[in-house]
Amino acid sequence: MIKVIRDLELIRCKVTGFNLESATLDTVSELPLISTDPSSSNSTIKSGDQKVIGFEHHTSWLKNELTASHVKTREVIPIVGMGGIGKTTLARFVYEDPSIRRRFDKRYWVTISQEYDLLRILQGILDDKDCDSIRDLGTSLSQSLKGFRYLIVLDDMWDLGAWEDLRQYFREDNQGSRIIVTSRDKNLADGLRSSKTCDVGFLSEEKSWELFCDTVFGGMCCPLELETIGRQFLKNCRGLPLGIITIAGLLSKLNKTCEYWSSVSKDVAALVNLEDNKSCRKVLSLSYDYLPLQLKPLFLYIGGFSKEDEAIQMDKLINELVAFALVRPIPGKPIQQVTKDYLMELFQRNLIFIRDKDELVGV
């Protein structure tokens, strides 16, 4: 089955023109790898001139944690959620907040991604392209942080190895420094051993509509004749900010008539995959592309297991996964337990949602 998955992916890549072997490189975040000066960022998320809809509570909580004067120790704060949920947007908004800029002596934005390059990261932070010694660069970074209160954002971390490689250079001087780590993986966040985690979930229907109108109509009210079909678009997005922004961004460029929107609504999937929205497709597919091969058959099967929004009975799902030989046996371990472990890993990666975790892990 794993070979079949691989073959299907190769076919998919040929059709879409997407290079499977370099997939991780093509899906790197569009934010700059290193940003020590907010004014140099190409991000459109800036505190003061834009609002972050749906993240008001998260923003307030994060700012309080970053500026808590009674906490002198260096703290790590993970921001966790599925791809497209708004982790980077939230981190960027707080990072560029004027009060946060005043609070910290030094600030660094580091995009990690899957295939991170420690040498390049250190060179970028120190703005030193000539030195090619990780040890010397690490020592210089540690010394440059001495006596300063610093804020470092490690965006899009996929592996604890990146944290282990970098943490040794982030000195602890009891200055109240903070490190924000964004990730899709709950297990990774747990591995950071932080007592404080910011979990980012889906937007409510109300906030989804607010974001939609803000993007399409520039904050103005939606015309009554477009409201019904506009809310239909939101159902397809299910509260995922990236989906809402992608579709709303396209609609903002099109004729705002009921007839035109009706023609678009017939194929939202095609709309999202238009040429102008390659970044959305890449972001949403990144989690799948990075899955271990043994998990891909399960994920694909679950995708076609039931109708939209229909709950899946765990026992039935496990039995079918086993019956169709979609799970590779592990010596000395019951196949049902292996299947549950794989499902839990999908859950930890924010690719599936479990209504009752006790049903999965309590066996």
Strand and helix layout:
Blueprint: H1 2-16, H2 23-26, E1 34-35, H3 56-67, E2 75-80, H4 87-95, H5 98-103, E3 106-111, H6 118-126, H7 134-145, E4 150-155, H8 160-167, E5 178-183, H9 186-191, E6 198-199, H10 205-217, H11 224-237, H12 241-251, H13 258-265, H14 268-272, H15 278-289, H16 296-303, H17 314-323, H18 335-348, H19 357-361
Parallel strand pairs: 2-5, 2-6, 3-4, 4-5
Antiparallel strand pairs: 1-3
Helix pairs in contact: 6-7, 10-12, 11-12, 11-13, 17-18
Structural description of this entry:
The chain is of the alpha/beta class. The protein is 50% helix and 8% strand. Strands 1-3-4-5-2-6 form a six-stranded mixed sheet. It has helices spanning 2-16, 23-26, 56-67, 87-95, 98-103, 118-126, 134-145, 160-167, 186-191, 205-217, 224-237, 241-251, 258-265, 268-272, 278-289, 296-303, 314-323, 335-348, 357-361; strands at 34-35, 75-80, 106-111, 150-155, 178-183, 198-199. It contains 19 helices and six strands. Helix 6 crosses helix 7 (134-145). The longest helix has 15 residues, at 2-16.
